[in-house]
Known about the structure:
It contains ten helices and ten strands. The chain is of the alpha+beta class.
Amino acid sequence: xxxxxxxKCKQAxxxxxxxxxxxxxxLPSPRFxxxxxxxxxxxxxxxxxxxxxxxxxxxxxxxxxxxxxxxDGFLVDPQGYNYARYSAFVPNARSLLTPDMxxxxxxxxxAEPWRDESRDEMLRMTLRVDGKPDYTxxxxxxxxxxxxxxxxxxxFADLPMELxxxxxxxxxxxxxxxxxxxxxxxxxxxxxxxxxxTAMLLTEHLADYILTPNLSSPQEAALxxxxxxxxxxxxxxxxxxxxxxxxxxxxxxxxxxxxxSYGLLHRADYEPMLSPIQQKQEKEMTMQ
Length: 288
């Protein structure tokens, strides 16, 4: 008998959370395999269903992602993000379904061109309107793709930028080293960029900023700082006596940094977090 399982070395115990499945999503087997190998990538089936997850104190609510041609699955709690921020592999998950649980099989159809996960991706944009399903765009794209999306999502008339502007930006961003792309995304999020000129300007000033991708909370920022000023063993011994959240907030504030979906972001010179345009405006005011 062969059972797929994720074994952990010298596991001392197991404290499993009670999980409630709010929605079951079935993926084509190739997409499920891709998802299982890259859980931290952004996915449309998470972005478009994360708002279907409820919240209460009795259990952790999740999506259940199934392989259309297999029995296994993943429990996913995205915590409002577009990737599997918390996940658990569930062997033979299909056998756990009850007759009253519906399965969303809309992702089995290749009809929507924006659900082609195999394309080279620089930017993923989710269009959202109250009471309607979310739509996810993967850019850059060719004219056929853009025309199909605009036809399908014609009701989105109040986009901050035209789709062509987004596409122009993502094509330009292709020249950015792949390692710098998360930093660019963090900057776009931090400054809430809504025009192509500012977005293009950020691509020219990436060296002015530093992104630490593995820091996503004040507690993690606090531990990182403690490990910087002392060795990790000493830092771990100190943790029970430190309010990590408050200390992390202090560290972030002192560095003029900001937490984004992609990690901790700050200026390379640790000056206040300003966009290139804001820096230019501040300099002009100082000269006046």
